[in-house]
Amino acid sequence: MILNIKNVTKQYATHKALDRVSMEVPKGSVFGLLGPNGAGKTSLIRIINQITAPDEGEVWFNGEKLTQKHIGSIGYLPEERGLYKKMEVGEQALYLAQLKGISRQDAVTKLRYWFDKFELNGWWRKKVEELSKGMQQKVQFIITVLHEPQLLILDEPFTGFDPINANLIKDELLALKEKGTTIILSTHRMESVEELCSHIALINRSNKILDGSVTDIRKQFKSDKYEIDYKGNGIAFANALWAGFELVSHEPHGDLIRAVVRMGNGAKTNDLLAALIPNVEIHSFREIVPGMSDIFISIVKENNLMEPVATDL
Amino acid sequence: MSIITLIIKREYLTRVQKKSFIIMTLLGPILMASIFIIPVLMAKYDENEVSKIQVIDESGMFKNKLADSQSMAFELDTFSLPVAKTIFDPEKHTAILYIPENVMTNASSVMLFSAKQPNINLVTTIERTIQKEIENVKLKNQGINQETLDQIKTKVKINTRTLTDKGEEETNAGLTTAVGLIGGLLIYMFIFLYGAQVMRGVIEEKTNRIVEVIISSVRPFQLMMGKIIGIALVGLTQFLLWIVLTMTISSVVTNLFVDKKQMQEQMMSRQSPLGTPLPESVEDGAQVAEDNVTASIFGSLESLNVPVLIGAFIFYFLGGYLLYGALFAAIGAAVDGESDTQQFMLPITIPLILSFIVAQSILQNPESKIGFWFSMIPFTSPVVMMVRIPFGVAPWEIILSMALLILGFVATTWVAGRIYRTGILMYGKKVNWRELGKWLFYKE
Questions:
Q1: CA-CA distance, A37 to A9, in Å (whole number)?
Q2: What CATH number should be reported for the domain holding residue B57?
Q3: CA A220 to CA A241: how far, in whole Å?
Q4: Based on the domain organization, do B364 and B436 belong to the same domain?
Q5: Of the candidates B10, B425, B438, which has its C-beta nearest A95's C-beta?
Q6: Is residue B289 domain-shared with residue B392, that is, in the same domain?
Q7: Is B212 touching A (CB cutoff 8 A)?
Q8: How many domains does chain B have?
Q9: Rounded to an integer, what distance in angstroms lies between the CA atom of residue A72 and that of residue A93?
Q10: Quick check: is B173 in a domain?
């Protein structure tokens, strides 16, 4: 575990931002930190970055209690991000890198590598305000990763990027993951979560309501439903199902008919197929896996119903 | 390089390299030097333009009495006034001075004709000369001769001395006032100019949204102090450059265009409003007066205890700036843009302006109760104490005031630091005073 958050509570004057939140971030994972707006994600991220301190609870980094000396091992791209507009791009990147504790010479070498990679070479001496929004975002990303942090925390990293640059960043993140960097990704874009994350935690109303590996969570939320497209007689299809299977829906789909079947306890997919094959011509058969988005929405809704809070922010 | 030095370096270099800094640095001395140079040049220009005055003296009293000077020449003519008026040529003469026969009984009948409005200098000089001559004649008519007259004439110059432990010390009330006032004014200006820069710097970081990136690497307090110190160095650099450049420009220009003697006269007449009594008429021995003034100024400079003065100036200069700089930083952190700063600026500017008003009343009475208290309160002491010091302030008062200023600085920095670290992360929230009060007690 690179990060171990234990019972962290953060109280602001009028509301509790985090209420005894605990979670573990495995080393080398891409960890999705999810939750609706105002749930407490940014508060947690700020605590990990030591911008604020928790009222209660502890944060451990690589088996040590988190202190100032870990600042150089963490890279942070905040949601609200910007650069000094009047400062030159190269000089600014060097400054911010030096604040993270790496030497100027070292920073120059690394910066050249990244500027090459992101095709920013002609821009070293330009002022930030002369750069397009997308280029500024690239520079910000470079600044975040320049000091080669072990833990990278990205808050909505893809906003403001066109699809091409978003892909560029995505590829870089995967490359960093390959090198062993742990990435915490806080985002609302569920497709990036599906694509990148190996683990997630879901925060709602200051509480962590779900966490674990994506595979486990999928399993947990598995609906045991299968979607079958077939050609043949609908009545024959329905008759073929025995007690272990429940027909959820049944409707025409182009030339074919699409049926959704829920499996009963102990039933196996092969049994279902064996029952159907003699009666209809099966064109496709697949398990309906809930998307992260579905899981997110259903669990947050359920959680809000369980503990209605009148004065939520 | 430590983190805070890095921040200071950035704050300093980005500002010093700005075009506006370079322009201000160059423009400042030109403006300041022009205050010194323009009067000198104007005097030189005036001198070239000698006013030629045609005199029609019907009384016959003023033959050889109207002395030519650097700026005017008199020419006695025997035309009658109507003739003189018809043949008056503005190219040859500036004006016609008409002195009627009955000038002794009706002194207001003297007339000056000219094509353009004559300058006030010319008129007063002529007035004074005629007045004096008439007085002399009248006195003689009363049986008082020139010799007696010269004996009667008395000139009084008060030499001020303060009684101290070391005995008597010669002082110069004018110079003391000037030194105190200039010191106080500089501190006042410095706090406003560079305090506002601190505030703008913080607002810039907040609206740029770079602040969260930075404080994930450094403590908010380090960032705030780095900025305050960096800008202080910018201010000191600018002041230093201004002094050096002003002195260079002034001396180069005056050496090129103006001869020494005239410069001295110019200096002398400029110092006179500061309280050094100057003899009324120049012909009464300008040389003596000049020597007196120069001597007395140098004499009082020695009496002013320059090391204490410079030490105190630097202390109050920096102390006042640091105290207010932190508050300006807190305001910058609390608002979302420069337009929101108004409501918080007022409470900061009021003590500053007040201190300047009090400073002026202190010039009248340096030992007043008001003066004492305002030179103790850290918010007003930098300006007020600086004005008082040249008049002589008991060492315990200075030490107490300095200690209070240090305490005040620590206190405002603490308060500002707390407001700052909460404020820089608050976006899009209208903040009021109650809210700021709450921030003070937030845990980190």
A1: 18
A2: 3.40.190.10
A3: 26
A4: yes
A5: B10
A6: yes
A7: yes
A8: 2
A9: 15
A10: no
Domain with CATH 3.40.50.300 in chain A: 3-219
Is the domain of B271 the same as that of B326? yes
Which 117-176 residues of chain B touch chain A by CB within 8 A?
none
Whether A99 sits inside 8 A of B218 (CB atoms) is: yes
Report which of B314, B30, B28, B335 is spatially closest to residue B193, judged by C-alpha positions.
Answer: B28
Please tell me which residue of chain B has the smallest CA distance to A10.
B443
| pLDDT by residue, tens only, chain B of 444 residues | 688 999 999 999 999 998 889 998 888 888 877 776 777 777 666 556 677 888 888 887 777 777 777 677 888 887 788 888 888 888 888 888 888 888 888 878 888 888 877 777 788 888 888 888 888 888 888 888 777 877 877 777 777 676 666 556 556 667 777 778 888 888 888 898 899 999 999 999 998 889 999 998 998 999 999 999 999 999 889 888 888 887 887 778 777 765 555 555 555 554 444 444 444 444 444 445 555 555 555 555 555 677 888 888 889 999 999 999 999 999 999 888 888 888 888 888 899 889 888 888 888 777 788 888 998 999 999 999 988 888 888 889 999 999 999 999 999 999 998 899 888 888 777 788 888 888 887 766
Q: Which residues of B touch A133 (CB under 8 A)?
A: none
Query: Domain A223-287 is classified in which CATH homologous superfamily?
Result: ACT-like. Chain A, domain 2 (3.30.70.1150)
Q: How far is B171 from chain A (nearest CA, A)?
A: 52
Comparing alpha-carbon positions, the chain B residue that sits nearest to A42 is B425
Q: What is the pLDDT of residues A152-185, one digit of tens each?
A: 999 988 887 888 888 889 999 999 999 999 999 9
Chain B residues lying within 8 Å of A81, measured CB to CB: 209-210, 212-213
The residue segments making up the domain with residue B424 are 181-440
> CA B177, CA B274: separation in Å to the nearest integer?
8
Task: Say whether residue A73 is in contact with chain B using an 8 A CB cutoff.
Answer: no
Inter-chain residue contact A51 with B215, CB threshold 8 Å: yes
Question: Does residue B43 sit within a domain?
Answer: no
B429–chain A Cβ distance below 8 A for any pair: no
The domain A3-219 is classified under which CATH number: 3.40.50.150, 3.40.50.300, 3.40.50.720, 3.40.50.620? 3.40.50.300
Could you tell me if residue B2 is inside a domain? no
